[in-house]
Amino acid sequence: MLVLLAFIIIFHITSAALLFISTIDNAWWVGEDFFADVWRVCFNSTNCTEINDTFQGYSTLQAVQATMILSTILCCISFLIFVLQLFRLKQGERFVLTSIIQLMSCLCVMIAASIYTDRREDLHRDNADLYALTSEGTYGYAFILAWVAFACTFTSGLMYLILRKRK
Question: In the record, which residues are listed under signal peptide (predicted)?
């Protein structure tokens, strides 16, 4: 049982780390000489432009920012609730509250990555000065980590739903 508990804790911490990295790092859309994410666009690793309200499609990026931050916060809260429930629940009860919060985190990261996937082309095309420089790119590792974090949070949410407190 201790091995299973250690695995679940490590898996949850890994999910939170993936969410932190994918939210913070500047590699959602990358090319030869640029990096872009939901916070800024950098050319030649030195010339960075913050994405603000003058950026066309800023409200779309704000939705991605907000849901990624919310997903990270919910993942951390679900871990704290798991630790509290570990000591408070009676034997045989399920970690339902932890599961619900973790699945809400999963939903938030899925929404953020889906919005970015759907609107990325529009975001770059609407900003003509950046589009010429960023049109030839690919999804970066932070974007891929967001989808991996989705799978991890979904899996851990289901694990908590199934898991019962045993001796």
Answer: 1-16
